[in-house]
Amino acid sequence: MNGKVRMMIINGKITSGLGKGAFFLSQNFYKNRFNEELGFIPFPGTLNIIVEKEFLEIIKNIKLNKSNLISGEGDFGSVRYIKAILEDKINGAIVFPDKTSHEENYLEFISNKNLRKTFNFKNNDKVQLKIVLN
Q1: What is d(CA 121, CA 103) in angstroms, rounded to the nearest whole number?
Q2: In angstroms, rounded to a whole number, what is the distance separating the alpha carbons of residues 67 and 27?
Q3: Statement: the pTM of the whole predicted model exceeds 0.70
Q4: Is the Cα torsion angle 89, 122, 35, 63 positive or negative in sign?
Q5: Nearest to 10 by CA among 68, 52, 47, 61
Q6: What are the angstrom distances between the C-alpha of 24 and each of 3, 30, 97?
Q7: Beta-carbon neighbour count of residue 75 at 10 Å?
Q8: Dihedral, CA atoms, 50, 65, 46, 17, nearest 10 degrees?
Q9: Per-residue pLDDT of the chain (134 residues; tens, 9 = 90+)
Q10: Residue 4 CB contacts under 8 Å (≥ 6 apart), including other chains
Q11: Predicted local distance difference test score (pLDDT) of residue 103
Q12: What is the four-CA torsion angle of 54, 50, 5, 57, rounded to 10 degrees?
């Protein structure tokens, strides 16, 4: 392995979520595991991004092939994740909860910051994610 990081760029638009991310990301076992796996305790909430249909097959393959998994406890389901960078500035991850109500074209991005406040994001603002493939 040559140590070169492979990235894929995905563009999308900010949208409102269902409000469930804050509750789940407040659970200690999720916070602790994300801290162990990603090196940060996530802000209790996700930044929801709608992506173009052209990216759906790629995202589906990433989600299915990644071994990055945080197992749930009790009634809380497992969460797969993949490291990503928002706007070339914020390291975080895209999370794929096993139990979700979102459509396939929704991505949920987590970081240690309140991203709507940090960037003053509004619905329909365009954003770029770089997904770390290796």
Answers
A1: 21
A2: 22
A3: yes
A4: negative
A5: 52
A6: 34, 7, 10
A7: 6
A8: 40
A9: 456 777 889 999 999 877 677 778 888 888 999 999 999 999 998 999 999 888 888 777 777 766 788 887 877 788 889 999 999 999 999 998 876 555 677 899 999 999 999 999 999 999 999 987 76
A10: none
A11: 61
A12: -30
Q: Three-class SS string for 47-99? A: EEEEECHHHHHHHHHHHHHCCCEECCCCCCCCEEEEEEEECCCEEEEEEEECC
Amino acid in the structure at residue 55: F
- Cα 61 from Cα 106, distance rounded (Å): 15
Cα–Cα distance, 39 to 32 (Å, whole number):
10
What are the structural domains, with CATH classification, of the chain? 7-132 (2.40.30.30)
